[in-house]
Amino acid sequence: MENFLQQLINGLTLGSIYGLIAIGYTMVFGIIGMVNFAHGDVFMVSAFIALLIFLAVTQILGIASLPLAFVLVLVAAMILTALWAWVIERIAYRPLRGSFRLAPLISAIGMSILLSNFVQVAQGPRNKPVPPMFTDVIAVTDGAYRVTLSYKQILIMLVTALLLVGFWWLVQKTPLGRAQRACEQDRKMAALLGIDVDRTIALTFVIGAALAAVAGVLYMMYYGVVNFYDGFVPGVKAFTAAVLGGIGSLPGAVLGGLLIGLIETFWSAYFSTDYKDVAAFSILAIVLIFMPSGILGRPEVEKV
Amino acid sequence: MRWRTNPLLGVEHLTMRFGGLVAINDLSFDVGRGDITALIGPNGAGKTTVFNCITGFYKPTEGRMAFARTGLADSNAVARLTASGGRFAGTPAGDLYMLERMPDHEIAWRARVARTFQNIRLFSGMTVLENLIVAQHNPLMRASGYSLLGVLGIGGYKTREREAVAKAEMWLERIGLIDRADDPAGELPYGAQRRLEIARAMCTDPVLLCLDEPAAGLNPRESAELNKLLRAIRDEDKTSVLLIEHDMSVVMEISDHVVVLDYGVKISDGTPTQVRNDPKVIAAYLGADDETENAEPSA
Amino acid sequence: MGAKPTDAAPAFFSAEAIGGAFRAALVAAGLAFPILALRAEPDLNNQLVLLNRWPLLLWAAGIVFVGHLAAQIPHVGRILKWALFAGCTLVLVWILAGVANSNLPLRGKIALFTLIAASGFFGLLIAAPCAPGTPFHDFQKRARAFAGKIVGPIGIVALFAFPLVMLWTLGPGGSLKWINNYGVQILIYVMLGWGLNIVVGLAGLLDLGYVAFYAVGAYAYALLSTHFGLSFWLCLPLAGILAAFWGIILGFPVLRLRGDYLAIVTLAFGEIIRLVLINWTDVTNGNAGLSSIPRITFFGLPFTAADNGFAASFGLEFSPIHRNIFLFYLILCLALLTNVATLRLRRLPIGRAWEALREDEIACRSLGINTTSTKLTAFALGAMFGGFAGSFFAVRQGFVNPDSFTFLESATILAVVVLGGMGSQIGVALAAAAMIGGTEILRELDLLKAIFGPDFDPAQYRMLIFGFAMVAMMIWKPRGLVSSREPSIFLKTRKSVSASHVREGHG
Q1: Which residues span the domain enclosing A162?
Q2: Looking at the predicted structure, is the pLDDT value of residue C34 above 90?
Q3: Pair C157, C295 in one domain
Q4: Which residue has the higher pLDDT, C367 or C161?
Q5: Residue C9 lies in a domain
Q6: Which of B237, C272, C298, C446 has the fewest Cβ atoms surrounding its Cβ within 10 A?
Q7: Distance from CA of C54 to the nearest CA of A (A)
Q8: Residue C99's CB: how many other CB atoms inside 10 A?
Q9: CA C230, CA B199: separation in Å to the nearest integer?
Q10: Least CB-CB distance to A49: which of C34, C48, C478?
Q11: What is the CATH number of the domain that holds C343?
Q12: CA–CA separation, C397 and C292 (whole Å)
């Protein structure tokens, strides 16, 4: 029981991170029907930006207050990662609108390879151990098996929840959100009604990247190590989350993220750590084959 | 009245729902063997959905589509096949298929129902000739020993391929595209693409040819040529035709039987003259007076 | 920053143009700011410390600024093309000078010099960026058509002669690198590219897990030969069949998925197979891999210095080069088998159905084509050739482990197909030669080390360049280097179909 509780906490923490990344996949898919394969690597880039900014803030500026440093890192990582996503969309995807269907996907794969190798060249291939932060823990239960909830985990869940509320407001209540939903329905008609479609799509990428950047900051802090290939597997898992929740559906992405996080931690705890990635990949395949519209997605009718 | 005496296809109680939307509601009609049957109705009446059900691209929510490929449709045989749950029955009276139980490619290849599309679907990067050869895929596949013999160069594949080319040439002559045989299909002008799509469908040796707005976008001369072609398909190739059309001059001129749909429901069914004089049809096309409008479901 | 000189582009060196370039440079600086300008390195206590590299940031911003301005020079496209042409000419002359000054035997010098000079100058002649309409341009068109016709047969003859010519000119020691690093390595990717071309290029199914079948082939040979002592010639077809079988098993449930979903599922399958290879240690020995796999023999004669070895049996002096030459011919034949099979299949109904499927799946179904079995055949055949290549890989290396079968490997093969021109056999071969050969050349260029310092390792830029090339290709020429399509049958004249009509991939 204690073990179960501990795994539940760990799973929800991991799931929050996946959920944040998954939103980027699901939003882009919703608006332009494209699997943004490079999104996982944007997440990885954001983790590196976060690491470097953190080091700069503590070592160069000499800021000792951890919460202040954390806020600075979060804001800087969101802005800089959003800039990356904006440039990527502009260079690699926008010219391909109207090209054949697989062109954006191939371009995105190229972008993914480009990003991870760029970081490898710029930052070196070795693991970067991050200085530990927020190391305190709260004991939830006492006894032989102590269930703990760390400050880090609280912070992750708190930040995720806050961001989701803000994001929900953005999509539901602002003109930008309305423009986004209009472009999702019918891009041509939206353009005729005076919506700047290019700008709306670019902003979708930017928002998705900013959320991925938050995930990147949290990931760096939680695991304490980053590497240039860290974009691929979390990226695929977050994509799995988006598909599981129903691609195109925002609540679905969060739900899917939490589910994938839980499945992964419970699988590792009760079955085997060796096969935990196999589990994630298998879920991806099974969901796509047997329920391609996911839990909260709408079924697609083939147009003849 | 061949649709009464010798029906080729019997559509009964066909219903198609997409989520909450009812696209076709309890539709029944017959297609006569050797007839040109027109399916008409205002935009959004559900005509293309009927086509997609008949050709297997959609699985209807409810309903039966009995297709008597050869011989006479025998109501007993239909009932027996329905009860058995099978797709096909070879009765002494002829071959009978249940279209709603078959996947799309089987409908084309076994039951021999061919179709064209509202937005032309040619293989635009392949040549005109290749388009017509691809249409003869199944017999050629068999001749090539399902590729096993063909890849080794054994068997009579070459002869069969020559026959297939001859058949394609015959159709190219008939649609006046023989000089463009080696050009990419995507390079043809619009009207020629429409004709090629019909020829491609005919290369599958269909018993029933379903045409989705074949006259759309054609000029009057091309339209007249199309009428001639469709009559020839009915009379010389002995292929029945089911077509969706907006152009009333085409419908009235060539069809033997007209079925009128509105909001997924059949509102009239008969010869062109009968349909033309049906007040319900006039109401649906020209706008209804208050009484009938209230009776209709709103969109 | 994607700025193209259009009619509306601001005049060169106007305030507007400079402002635009300045903004682009700012964006570049923003991108470069933490990732490029700072580097985190662990110190002796494994604590990360920051290294400053601010000049790099200035470089990045400066290059973007200048590039952005230069893009507005009138006729910049043509100027760039001619500059590229001049650069290629210089490189060719430089290579020729290198050959002339090298310490090769004279016959080798002459042979290499004439070969490189003839092919190089012919290539430059037909690639010169002449304006359309000039008489020379018409000549170029004819020359290109001629080159297109002869490049296949000449290439095959040249490939068969290649190891012998190398041996003759460079001797056993000097030719090893050329036959092994360049010849065999490139041919493996040519074969993999041709195999994947069936799936991606012809049938239009984006397969991101192709390397799984390569792995199945490699492990099949490794396991069958070490555990059951089966010979390579028996294992080769078995590996192909096993890979095809896996292709069917994996393909069957997924082939009705849409294009991009299919791509992701195949990626997942590829990763699952790799993870199983890592974790199923009882059979695969995990990350350590399987070693001491039996080496290739000359139909039973081992390539050893022993009395019953190949060299002794043929009265030759023993040399490890014999094995490599045999491997070269083996992979050449396997690759050509793939090519011949593909070319023949393209002229059969199944091949036409693949291409039709790529053009329009719904139309295929309306014509009675069973799209599932058609896709499955493409998938299984592609897998089979991947399996052949895999077992060749295992017999060549004598060692396999899961590291050789990562997603990056799939992406490399896909890049070969995409850059070469989806569906074009010759294009794929050229792309493989350029990409794999280019990497090898990069590795050797001392020139780059002289510029960037002795620590500079060009090999790590390989995937960076691949990724960039994939993006650039999609934007510039989505159909790849060889983009026109040859019809599979014709009535009167064979006319190539230009890229603008051909569609790629369904969905």
Answers
A1: 2-230
A2: no
A3: yes
A4: C367
A5: no
A6: C446
A7: 13
A8: 19
A9: 55
A10: C34
A11: 1.10.3470
A12: 9
Q: What is the pLDDT of residues A30-60, one digit of tens each?
A: 888 888 999 999 999 999 999 999 988 888 8
Query: Residues A102, A103, A108, CA angle at the centre, nearest 5°?
Result: 100
Q: Is residue C224 part of a domain?
A: yes
Q: How many CA atoms lie within 13 A of B51 on its CB side?
A: 27
How many Å lie between the alpha carbon of C369 and the closest alpha carbon of chain B?
6
C316 and C212 in a common domain: yes
Asked whether residue C243 is assigned to any structural domain, the reply reads: yes
In this prediction, residue B295 carries a pLDDT of 43
Cβ B137–C355 below 8 Å, yes or no?
no
Q: What is the pLDDT of residues C171-191, one digit of tens each?
A: 777 788 888 888 899 999 999
Token output for A276: 């935990």
Quote the pLDDT of residue C352: 94
Q: For residue C5, what pLDDT band results from cuts at 50, 70 and 90?
A: very low
Q: Which of A78, A81, A100, A126 to mutate to test the interface with C (most CBs of C within 10 A)?
A: A100
Domain count along chain A: 1
- C-beta atoms of B48 and A304 within 8 A: yes
Residue for token digits 């690093």? C181
**Structural domain span for residue C63:** 15-74
Domains (ranges, CATH) in chain B? Answer: 1-112+206-299 (3.40.50.300), 121-204 (no CATH)
Among residues C506, C197, C198, C262, the alpha carbon closest in space to that of C363 is found at C506
Q: How many CB atoms lie within 10 A of CB A282?
A: 16
| Residue B170 in tokens | 């015959």
Neighbours, chain B (3 or more CB pairs < 8 A): A, C
**Residue C330 structure tokens:** 């083996």
User: Helix (H, G, I), strand (E, B), or coil: what is residue B180?
Assistant: helix
Give the whole-angstrom CA distance, residue C96 versus residue C170.
16
Burial of A186 (0-12, 13-18, 19+ CB in 10 A): exposed
How far is residue A11's CA from residue A3's CA, in Å, rounded to a whole number? Answer: 12
Q: Is residue A152 a part of any domain in this protein?
A: yes
3-state helix, strand, coil in chain C (%, to 5): 70, 5, 25
User: What residues does B261 pair with on adjacent strands?
Assistant: B266
What length does chain B have? Answer: 299
Residue C46's CB: how many other CB atoms inside 10 A?
7
Query: b/e per residue, B232-252, with b = 16+ CB within 10 A?
Result: ebbeeeebbbbbbbebeebbb
Q: Which of A197, A238, A283, A222 is nearest to A19 (CA)?
A: A238
Apex B61 CA angle, B55 and B66, nearest 5: 50
- Nearest by CB to residue A100, choosing from C267, C463, C504, is C504
Look at residue C343 and tell me if it is in a domain: yes
Establish if B149 touches chain C: CB-CB under 8 angstroms. no
Closest Cα in chain C to B137: C349
Q: Does C349 sit within 8 Å of B125, measured CB to CB?
A: no
User: How far is Cα A21 from Cα C420, in angstroms, rounded to an integer?
Assistant: 34
Contacts of C503 in chain B (CB under 8 A): 124-125
Sign of the torsion angle spanned by Cα atoms C146, C151, C154, C158: positive
CB B203 within 8 A of CB B237: no
d(CA C419, CA C409): 15
d(CA A26, CA A29): 5
Mean pLDDT of chain C: 84
DSSP state of C299: T
Among residues B271, A236, A210, B120, the alpha carbon closest in space to that of C275 is found at A236
How far off is chain C from B181, nearest CA to CA, in Å? 7
| 3-state percent helix, strand, coil for chain B, nearest multiple of 5 | 45, 25, 30
* Residue A193 CB neighbour total at 10 angstroms: 10
Q: Is the confidence at residue B297, as pLDDT, over 60?
A: no
In a domain, A13, yes or no: yes
Partners of residue A96 in chain C, C-beta under 8 Å: 474-475, 478
Looking at the structure of chain C, the number of domains it has is 2
Mean of pLDDT values over B33-62: 89
